[in-house]
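step: validate -> pass
step: tokenize input -> pass
step: predict -> running
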Amino acid sequence: MFSYRNNPAGTAEGGIPSVYVVDSQAMRPVLPPRPNQGRRNGRAVQTLLFFLVSLALCGMIIQACFIYRLYQSESANSASFAKLIAAQNPTPPPAHFYYDVLPSKPVAHLTGGQNVIHGKEVMAWSMKAEPTLYQMVYRNGSLIIQKQGYYYVYSKVFFTDSGKFHHYVNMLTEKYAGGIITLLQARKYSPVSEVVRSNSYLGGVFHLYENDAIYVNVSSTAKIIQFNPNENVFGAFML
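step: predict -> pass
step: emit ->
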């Protein structure tokens, strides 16, 4: 936009009036922000940061409480399981017995001994001969399965071979209404007039369930020879 204005002092040379140019598009100077507005923005940012930090701390506290309760629950379950095993196994291995390498699966290897008192037909096993007994329970001559799976079960006995001699590995299970199941058996016959010493070995693979009980049964434990603990053995291990 242009405007003309006469010079009160007179005219320019040649009689031409002075001309002044006014630019209407010129920008106004930028004003600084108000102090109150900056303070309000700063307070809002501080409030937001405080809220986020508080929320993160609350989350960490809740997570810590959850982990603590979970740890306490697992500790209680482990203690209960240990008490249950101790109650089921009144004759634990000697305190000096230990494993050089901890087994990766359930395993048991029991031996005889001169301190063992057998039943009439059911054989017993020594807990003083450093038996191998891991994740299985020994009770009243039987091995109690604690974990379902396939097991190799075996037994070897040393006996006086005179007349007939029967050697069995039997199982008691809740899965079978009849109760006793014969897993393995061997029968030997010899003349009554001859008295010789002989061995009988049984072994096989079976699928066993938790709380199944396996034990060794013979026709007469009076014929069992107990000079050396390793001459009579009984065990099982998970495959």
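step: describe -> Residues 107-238 form a domain with the Jelly Rolls fold (CATH 2.60.120.40).
step: cleanup -> pass
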